[in-house]
């Protein structure tokens, strides 16, 4: 029986899928893709006789039944998710159902949109003496967020925050972040459709971003990045400091690290 591949499609640009993911698409007999977010241009990698399903209009049961019927016919099945499937991919329930049905599967990771957003912003998220932590989160929507993870309490860490699935509630997000301790002047950036041809970046502060985003009419497929890494002030990385010794370079401090 063929292994089913659950593949991260990357954030949009069809060249941002892994080589492994691309090869598997090129050999697929059946592709079930998350049509709400996966760039359809990725389907151009598929062979012309490949059967393509858009999971946006399917239930979990329908997805699993389609996979099962296809592997029973010895077809090669790819399940294509946006970004990396481990982040808000709803793959756990699919994997559990596949295990139950004794269907072998493998996961091929992808470039998550929070990383494509960093690339678009030309920004490092982990700056010395600013933040060494990235928080990946979302505001509560139809999917609830556990109480101890609400934005207000996460904001108290002043780490770099990448907030998914929340652009349509930006005003609420901003209020929560400020009540958690971020000052109204904290820098924030919105990246809509990172790596797509229509990518758009809006930079501002917590106190003016809602107005800017409303003006641009951005209300979906956007990453919210918040934190002082977006300021220009930071300490230089130790890694390339002349005195810093590490496994691959003897620095002037003569100490191993
Ligand atoms: N698994 C995906 C996330 C799926 S949840 C990943 O790893 O990226 C969907 C959310 O991801 C969207 O609401 C948006 O916040 C974000 N997103 C997905 N693609 C994006 C893109 N190209 N640019 C900006 N944000 C994106």
Explain the overall architecture.
This protein is an alpha/beta fold and 257 residues long. The protein has 2 domains: 4-108, Tetrapyrrole methylase, N-terminal domain (Cobalt-precorrin-4 Transmethylase, domain 1), CATH 3.40.1010; 113-230, Methyltransferase, Cobalt-precorrin-4 Transmethylase, Domain 2 (2-Layer Sandwich). Helices cover 24% and strands 19% of the residues. It has helices at 19-26, 60-72, 92-100, 113-121, 151-155, 170-179, 209-216, and strands at 4-8, 30-33, 51-54, 77-81, 105-108, 134-138, 160-164, 187-192, 200-205, 222-226. It has a 5-stranded parallel sheet with strand order 3-2-4-1-5, sandwiched between helices. A 5-stranded mixed sheet has the order 6-7-10-8-9, sandwiched between helices. β8 (187-192) and β9 (200-205) form a beta hairpin. The structure holds S-adenosyl-L-homocysteine. S-adenosyl-L-homocysteine binds at residues 11-12, 37, 81-84, 87-89, 112-113, 116-117, 164-165, 191, 193-196, 221-223.
Topology (elements, then pairings):
Blueprint: E1 4-8, H1 19-26, E2 30-33, E3 51-54, H2 60-72, E4 77-81, H3 92-100, E5 105-108, H4 113-121, E6 134-138, H5 151-155, E7 160-164, H6 170-179, E8 187-192, E9 200-205, H7 209-216, E10 222-226
Bound molecules: S-adenosyl-L-homocysteine (SAH).
Residues 11-12, 37, 81-84, 87-89, 112-113, 116-117, 164-165, 191, 193-196, 221-223 line the site of S-adenosyl-L-homocysteine (SAH).
């Amino acid at each position: 029986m063929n292994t089913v591949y659950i593949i991260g499609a990357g954030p949009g640009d069809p060249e941002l899928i892994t080589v492994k993911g691309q090869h598997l698409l090129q050999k697929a007999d059946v592709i079930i893709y998350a049509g709400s977010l996966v760039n359809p241009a990725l389907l151009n990698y598929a062979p012309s006789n490949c059967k393509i399903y858009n999971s946006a209009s399917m239930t979990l049961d329908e997805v699993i039944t389609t996979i099962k019927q296809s592997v029973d016919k010895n077809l090669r099945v790819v399940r294509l998710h946006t970004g990396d499937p481990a982040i808000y991919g709803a793959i756990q329930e699919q994997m559990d159902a596949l295990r139950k049905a004794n269907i072998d599967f493998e996961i091929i990771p992808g470039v998550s949109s929070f990383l494509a957003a960093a690339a678009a912003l030309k920004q490092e998220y982990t700056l010395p003496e600013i933040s060494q932590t990235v928080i990946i989160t979302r505001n509560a929507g139809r999917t609830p967020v556990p109480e101890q993870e609400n934005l207000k309490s996460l904001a108290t860490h002043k780490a770099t925050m990448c907030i998914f699935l929340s652009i349509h509630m930006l005003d609420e997000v901003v209020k929560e972040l400020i009540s958690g301790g971020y000052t109204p002047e904290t820098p924030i950036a919105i990246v809509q459709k990172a790596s797509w041809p229509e990518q758009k970046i809006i930079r501002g502060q917590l106190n003016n971003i809602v107005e800017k985003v409303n003006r641009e009419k951005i209300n979906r497929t956007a990453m919210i990045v918040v934190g002082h890494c977006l300021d220009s002030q930071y300490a230089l990385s130790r890694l390339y400091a002349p005195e810093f010794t590490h496994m691959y370079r003897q620095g002037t401090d003569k100490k191993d690290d």
